[in-house]
Amino acid sequence: MQDERVLVYRGCIIPLDLLYDVERDVWVRLEGEQARLGMTDPAQTRAGKLVAIRFKRPGTVVERGRALATIESGKWVGPFPAPFRCEIIETNQSGFERDILLANRDPYGEGWLLLVRPLAPEQLADLLPGEEAFQRYRQRIDELGLTCFRCAE
Amino acid sequence: MRIRVVDLGLVSPVRSQTVYHAVGYAFRSDTPPTILLVSTTDPYVSIGYHQDAEREVDLEYCRNAGLPVIRREVGGGAVYLDHNQVFTQWIFPRELVPSRVEDRFAWYVRPLVETYRQWGIEATWRPINDIHVRGRKIGGTGAASIGDAEILVGSLMLDFDTKQMARVLKVASEKMRDKVFQSLEEYMTTMRRELGTMPDRDQVVHTYLEQCSAALGAELEFGELTPEEEAVAAELDARFASEEWLYQKGGLRESGIKIHADVRLHEAALKVPGGLIRVIVRTHGGRIDDVSLSGDFTLLPALGLAAIEQAVRGLSTRREELAARIREVYRALGLQSPGVTAEDFASAIAQAVELAT
């Protein structure tokens, strides 16, 4: 049974059924041999409204910490980093073509960024499950003085 | 806190961009927070990281005019730069920089705004990343996360060549180019324009550094680049000058040419049974500020076109609202346009604004 609850701290939503790389602000949903990745609610809040995104091509192998995509908001450009070594299977190019604010509107749903194949199983062990990630996020959100909101609205 | 300040004076076009990337890529735990000041010896065009060079810039013109076109790893749009701007580039460790992008710009922009104010120019921060003087933009700013560093870039806008800026952009018609130029004239300003005279670079820089020191509560120390930073810059000079770097495909981006935070120019063409409708739309705060319609269709009486252009000013860009207003003009003036309807004009305008580039 998936835990469908979400925890909320200062407006920041952390669904419990996902895994997190809190440092890199990436959520991970394991789907069999593959993993779906996206920006967390704190990540989309910090970035603000996206104005551009460029994905690396499917088939590309990306090391942990390196960019799977680059995102731009308010003239800031930054990486969407890989939480583990992986190969890109699919990107959400078509979703963002329809609506560049997809990750701002629905960071854990339609706003997913990439589907990848994990290539370093040992690095998956470093991801934190929902409850634990939430505790870490609380601390981090306090440190950053962050309050989450949907930047698209 | 101690901050290293490196005033590089005038450097080559490519180096004026690569130098801050280099300090970012070479950033280590013992690298001090750094402020670089630099101007370019010769004019060039800088394009945003996610832009498509061929789509945004008149590359043939630039080639013939000897203007380099250089992609930066910072966001935003294409801009014509010359020796009349002093680039103010901050390369800071992540923990010293506000974590929300918007807060980061507010923090970075403050000494720029204060510098202009010291010079008697009523500058204010216009979120997210513009500086305005009574509704006119006096320069934008950009940012990037590179390596272990957070980078913020902007400029002290001594002067700006709006004519060349409008010339280097790729646009579908000369009419659009005129609109870009007019809009830049109307919505941009510079120190020279505000003061009526060209300020002295060194004096402006002096004011700026005082303001940086005050805003950051930091001691500034003049320094130089390390040999490692120089080496990375030299490597990047080659990469940034390569065709592979320039011609990489753009990402998905919102549409239109951004004049400033509130003002964008859009253009589109719509084929309908009665001919081709060409439209140039300027939006201000999301509403229509100016529209120019043309094409090979027939509209009688001919003055109807100007009446439509006039009637849609101030409206939102919603198709239904536009169509309703244009239908009113049709009725009031008894307009006739075989194969072209009021809805078609509304669609052309709405499409220009929506068009994803």
Automatic annotation (TrEMBL), chain A:
Cofactor(s) needed: (R)-lipoate
GO process annotations (BP): glycine decarboxylation via glycine cleavage system; protein lipoylation
CDD domains reported for this sequence: GCS_H (cd06848)
Superkingdom field: Bacteria
UniProt entry keywords in alphabetical sequence: Lipoyl
One GO cellular component term noted in the UniProt record for this chain: glycine cleavage complex
TM spans (from-to): none
Pfam families: GCV_H (PF01597)
UniProt keyword Nucleotide-binding present: no
Protein name per the record: Glycine cleavage system protein H
Organism this protein belongs to: Thermomicrobium roseum
UniProtKB/TrEMBL annotation, chain B:
Cited InterPro entries: aa-tRNA-synth_II/BPL/LPL, BPL_LPL_catalytic, Octanoyltrans_LipM/LipL
Species the sequence originates in: Thermomicrobium roseum
Protein keywords: Ligase
Protein name: Lipoate--protein ligase family protein
Superkingdom of origin organism: Bacteria
One term of GO molecular function: ligase activity
